[in-house]
Each structure stands twice: as structure tokens, then as C-alpha cells.
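User: Reviewer 2 asked us to show a designed sequence for the structure in our supplementary figure. I'm pasting the C-alpha cells here. Could you produce the per-position amino acids so we can include them in the response letter?
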């Protein structure tokens, strides 16, 4: 009776962990999709200032492309883990730092930044467009740190369930394997007990 209750308690704890892992996995993917959308919008806004970008504009576009690549790597890391997870963490940290720096520059030195972009647009309109891009950069800065925290929790739950990488089928494969191990271990322990206690 005691062993049965321990097995049931372990199963309930594993199920609760798997539910949390599934919810974190969904939030992680949602944040990466939001980063994809924000970076794509920033590319559109930057190109709207000047179709063929200047050197400064080129590096700004490159930053947004790297942000998109990091978000795509995050979605891949959520399903494979391993090297993709490490690459995603490094890319996210770097792009978060640069997005934050760009946002500060846009809001503190809008005119100078607009001059470096060599915009074709009228200065007042260009400043509005640039501040929209700066707001999106600040949004991406915040969400990239949220993605880092969620990626850490995904790795933690995967490790806790005995899976070395981040499982893509968060509600299925990894969790079922963990529950099966708990149940199997309980059966093996009960075989050594006297006959009346075997269930």
C-alpha cells in the first residue's frame, strides 16, 4: 500500500512537471514568433527609409536578420536541443545587447542616426519611422531576455525528466518516457517483496 502511494505520488509529480514543461514550451515558441514578426517589421521600416541602405542601414538590417536567425534557431532548439540550444543562447544574448544599444541610440540621437541612414524621406516623417523601429528594437530587447529565461527552464525540465535535450513533443514523448520509468521501477521493487505485498 505504501509503495503504491509512492508510485502514484511520483506519477502525479511527473505529470505536473510535464504540464509545466508543455506550457513553458508553448510560451517559448510564442516569444520566438513575436521576435520573428518584430524583426521583419523593423526590416520593412528600415527599407522604407532608404531602399538601397547606407553602411549604417546595412548593419541595422544585418542585426534584424540575425535576430530572425536566432528566433528560427530557437524554434529548432525547442525540437532538437544539443548544439542548436547553445547556438540559440549565444545568438540571443548578442542580438539582445545590440538591439538594446540600437534602441537607445535611436531615441537619444534620432537626428544623427537618421543622417547616418541617409534617408530619402522627409526628416519629420523619417524621425517617426525611426522611432517606430526603435520601439520595436526595445520590444525585441525585452523579449530576447524572456526567451533566454524560458530556454533555461525548458532545459531544466528536460534534465529533470531525464532527457538530455529539449523535447519538441513536450506533451508526448519525453513525458511518457519519464512516467514509464517511474512505473517500471515501482514494479521491479515490488517483485522483491513477500507475496501479500505484491500488487
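Assistant: Here is a per-position design you can include in the supplement:
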Amino acid at each position: 500500500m505504501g509503495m503504491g502511494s509512492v508510485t502514484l505520488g511520483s506519477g502525479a509529480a511527473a505529470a505536473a512537471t510535464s504540464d509545466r514543461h508543455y506550457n513553458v514550451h508553448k510560451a517559448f515558441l510564442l516569444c520566438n514568433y513575436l521576435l520573428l514578426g518584430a524583426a521583419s517589421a523593423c526590416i520593412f521600416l528600415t527599407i522604407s527609409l532608404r531602399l538601397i541602405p547606407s553602411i549604417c542601414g546595412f548593419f541595422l538590417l544585418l542585426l534584424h536578420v540575425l535576430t530572425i536567425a536566432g528566433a528560427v534557431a530557437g524554434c529548432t532548439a525547442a525540437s532538437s536541443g544539443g548544439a542548436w540550444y547553445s547556438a540559440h543562447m549565444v545568438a540571443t544574448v548578442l542580438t539582445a545587447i545590440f538591439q538594446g544599444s540600437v534602441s537607445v541610440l535611436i531615441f537619444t540621437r534620432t537626428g544623427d542616426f537618421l543622417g547616418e541612414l541617409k534617408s530619402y524621406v522627409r526628416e519629420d516623417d523619417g524621425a517617426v519611422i525611426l522611432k517606430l523601429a526603435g520601439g520595436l528594437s526595445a520590444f525585441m530587447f525585452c523579449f530576447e531576455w524572456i526567451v533566454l529565461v524560458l530556454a533555461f527552464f525548458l532545459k531544466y525540465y528536460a534534465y529533470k525528466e531525464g532527457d538530455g535535450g529539449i523535447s519538441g513533443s513536450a506533451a508526448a514523448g519525453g513525458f511518457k518516457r519519464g512516467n514509464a520509468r517511474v512505473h517500471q521501477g515501482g514494479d521491479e521493487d515490488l517483485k522483491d517483496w513477500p507475496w501479500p505485498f505484491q500488487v
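For the response letter, you might also mention the following. Residues 1-6, 164-184 have pLDDT under 50 and may be disordered. The chain has six helices and no strands.
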